[in-house]
Design a protein that fits this description.
It contains six helices and twelve strands. It is α/β, with parallel strands linked by helices. The protein has one domain: Spore Coat Polysaccharide Biosynthesis Protein SpsA, Chain A, CATH 3.90.550.10.
Length: about 210
């Protein structure tokens, strides 16, 4: 069984794609929506999936880490997937995830950047998502360890032992990677897990688009 955490703020355009892809690829998922005072119809879209096990929570004084840590406390399952509200799962092998988590604290997958419906050339941050499996991926671009929470699996116990930094305004995943590697632990990237990651005007991942 898998719990999925989605952080939401005005993601009406894509959150339905994210949820539908979860229920298409994961049997009986528990879906935790942590909403950051959305003003659009995104939560109404979430309610369209009322036949599924979806729990919604609101958060004030939002930071990425605070939202994720809240979500972890609400998860009932041992495996947790953090999925962006504007990502759509296209390839998932849960046996691979379970095997990888036996020797790694996290496993994240490939992201295909989609700009207005078109797959774009992988530049800047997207170049990290290549066809080579890697342990403790290092970013030459950012000059630090690279991990990305748009599509990343963890065990619940790991996230309880190593919560995300709630003071950071972004890149909570990279700083988390630095912390766990400093403890002698490893995380894993595999292209055999995959999502479409849709363009959003405010998405930090999309800087350098071109």
């Amino acid at each position: 069984m898998v719990s999925v955490i989605i952080r939401n703020r005005d993601e009406a355009e894509y959150i339905g794609f994210a949820i539908q892809s979860i229920v298409d690829h994961i049997k009986d998922p528990e879906i935790i929506i942590v909403d950051n005072n959305s003003k659009d119809d995104s939560m109404k879209i979430v309610s369209l999936f009322d036949r599924y096990n979806i729990k919604t929570y609101s958060i004030d004084d939002y930071t990425p880490g605070k939202a994720l840590n809240l979500g972890v406390t609400k998860c009932s399952n041992d495996i947790i997937l953090i999925l962006s509200a504007h990502s759509q799962i296209t390839k998932l092998d849960l046996d691979l995830v379970k095997k990888s988590l036996k020797s790694n604290v996290a496993v994240f997958g490939n992201q295909i950047p989609i700009f207005r419906g078109k797959k774009i050339t992988k530049r800047y941050i997207w170049s990290h998502f290549n066809d080579k499996e890697q342990t403790n991926m290092f970013s030459e671009i950012e000059n630090r360890l690279f991990l990305h929470n748009a599509f990343c699996f963890y065990s619940k116990k790991v996230l309880e032992d190593f919560p995300f930094d709630e003071k950071l305004s972004g890149k909570e995943d990279r700083y988390w990677a630095i912390e766990v590697v400093s403890k002698g632990l490893t995380y894993f990237y595999t292209p055999n897990l995959e999502v479409n990651h849709f363009f959003t005007n405010k998405g930090a991942t999309w800087q350098g688009l071109g």
